[in-house]
Amino acid sequence: MAKWSWVFLFPLMGACYCQYEPTWESIDSRPLPEWFDQAKFGIFIHWGVFSVPSYGSEWFWWYWQGQKIPSYLSFMAKNYPPGFTYQDFAPKFTAEFFNAKDWVDIFASSGAKYIVLTTKHHEGYTLWGSKYSWNWNAVDVGPKRDLVNEIATAVRKHSDLRLGLYHSLFEWFHPLFRADAENNFTTFSFPQKKTLPELYEIVNKYKPEVLWSDGDGDAPDQYWNSTGFLAWLYNESPVRDTIVTNDRWGRGSICTHGGYYTCADRYNPGHLLKHKWENCMTIDQRSWGYRRDAKFSDYLTIEQLITTLVETVSCGGNLLMNVGPTHDGRIIPIFEERLRQVGQWLKVNGEGIYNTTAWRAQNDSVTPGVWYTWKPQEKAVYAFLLSWPTEGYVILSEPLVLAQTQVVLLGYKPLKWVPMKPSGLQVYLPALSPVQMPCSWAWTIRLTGVS
Predict the structure, then answer these.
(1) What is the rounded distance in angstroms from the CA atom of residue 255 to the CA atom of residue 247?
(2) CA gap 430, 436 in Å, rounded
(3) Fold agreement (16-352, 370-448)
């Protein structure tokens, strides 16, 4: 691998003038663009050929043909003729009801600040007409459309939304990857001929501001040339100033290297981390892709979703909430309802979410179900109440109050309070009817003038 030289300099985020070398030490030293931490909330979209069988999981092909799980074998035997292959699903990935503007309107209504679309999952099918995925992409077979471009175009018409693209490094059954794996990843045909050309292609063509890598196939980052690619991404790419990446760049890199950490699917540690992180999770608890066999109880309630959002942000993370569209391009009503409900809540309480940072205390040590954020520029502490107290008051033990402390229920008005000893305060909550409530789930108290 050629060593990068410090030939020229350019501004990064208006503060740091540097160029990055293809080593983790250098890559990891890059400051995370500020917009990502300020955004707090994004939408994940898992869409692909797996949306056609829409059974069990987006890992359908692997569970059917790789692991040969009996329920998947039985599903295929009952519903499809002998000799039916996974490739036969692709023409049925029609997207006839897909309208990028409608999707983006739903995402924007949720209050999300960025979206992350799966451009290619582990099945290898690309949602754009990739030159490196001949006849296994959305332009050649299926909808005959560049789905990535349609979404990218619609996202850029919304000033509050940023485009993110997910891309799987490996593919379950690609012969080049399997050959490299048999050689213990001492040969590099697959990354050189497939993965890296695709990554350069989507960055140059669609200019995403989040690049969400996944699926290392148990291969080390040296096999994927991850640091070499990231050095290009941070130094020369058209999005070098604003691009944000995650930590899934090869075996051993997760929760250790890269831009922000994901650590594991549905990662929610419940405490503050020293490094910026993201909780990627699903509204359907059992799958990232759409499932026709999902039960109502499989979907998280709006109360559960808001709790997850509050806990995540209080601990310094971003929440990436996933939906799985149907093969014909619909976002089913329960997904749309949940997203719009989150947006309704954020219209009232978003002041305590966006542009905040973790406070010195993440949750209250006396009152369960109370979480905190902090807005330094306004010197405001936000206390989120996940349930409405039945006693008519709530004790907040963490804030250090002063005579000039002001307490406001967001969406309502100032509240009465009295100091507690040795610290904290007792806040009196009004008796409100349901129609008088500022929102229906979780309430936010803003405290200013605290020590």
Answers:
(1) 6
(2) 10
(3) no
